[in-house]
């Protein structure tokens, strides 16, 4: 009888089950997503998420605890170098299970299990906020009136600046003309 046995034994003895989950976790960390059956993916999720949580604190003790579960030093270094910094702000739920249908041979439910922060399709979606403009809306007319008023102010300022510069330009030739007249007068007197 299986009274009080809460987790799926996956049809294996405990040593075989632990080795299989360890190997699957190493593959998941290395490749960021793997295809497997739904039952194995659910068991793997419960196995790998506490390991990822432990990897957030990079200490010798946490590395040893993670290595005792994974038994692969390359997977441990990958976990602490690449995965842990990316999931540092996430409180949990590091994996996602996506069902892909039934397997042809034995009709087993298949799925894709992946690390959430390493998915380029789901993670990079940024929705642009589009605005709908109405012909009758007051907000659009008010905005256009405000922008037109600003444009008129800018034009008036530039016109005033040009007016201030032009008299100076006119005064300079007049001063030159007066100097030339004074020089002509002086040359005539001699």
- What is the chain-wise order of helices and strands? HEHHHEEHH
Instruction: Specify the CATH architecture of the largest domain.
Output: Alpha-Beta Complex
Major sheet strand order = 1-3-2
Count the domains: 2
Describe this structure in words.
The protein has 190 residues and is mainly alpha-helical. It has 6 helices and 3 strands; from the N terminus they run αβαααββαα. The chain has helices at 14-31, 38-55, 60-70, 73-86, 120-123, 138-189; strands at 33-37, 95-102, 109-115. A 3-stranded antiparallel beta sheet has the order 1-3-2. The mean pLDDT is 82.
List the SSEs and their pairings.
Blueprint: H1 14-31, E1 33-37, H2 38-55, H3 60-70, H4 73-86, E2 95-102, E3 109-115, H5 120-123, H6 138-189
Helix pairs in contact: 1-2, 1-4, 3-4
Spell out the key features of this protein:
2 domains; 190 residues; 3 strands; 6 helices; three-stranded antiparallel sheet; 50s Ribosomal Protein L17, Chain: A; single chain; mainly alpha
């Amino acid at each position: 009888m299986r009274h009080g046995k809460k987790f799926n034994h996956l049809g294996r003895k405990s040593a075989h089950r632990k080795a299989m989950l360890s190997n699957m976790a190493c593959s998941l960390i290395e490749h960021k997503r793997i295809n497997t059956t739904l039952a194995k993916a659910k068991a793997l999720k419960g196995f790998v998420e506490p390991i990822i949580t432990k990897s957030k604190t990079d200490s010798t003790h946490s590395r040893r605890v993670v290595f005792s579960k994974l038994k692969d030093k390359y997977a441990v270094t990958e976990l602490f170098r690449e995965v842990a910094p990316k999931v540092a702000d996430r409180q949990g739920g590091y994996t996602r299970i996506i069902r892909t249908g039934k397997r042809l041979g034995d009709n087993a439910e298949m799925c894709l299990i992946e690390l959430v922060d390493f998915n380029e399709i789901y993670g990079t979606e940024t929705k642009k906020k589009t605005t709908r403009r109405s012909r009758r809306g007051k907000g659009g007319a008010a905005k256009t009136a405000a922008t037109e008023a600003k444009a008129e102010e800018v034009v008036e300022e530039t016109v005033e600046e040009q007016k201030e510069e032009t008299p100076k330009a006119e005064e300079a030739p007049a001063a030159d003309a007066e100097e030339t007249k004074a020089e002509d007068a002086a040359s005539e007197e001699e």
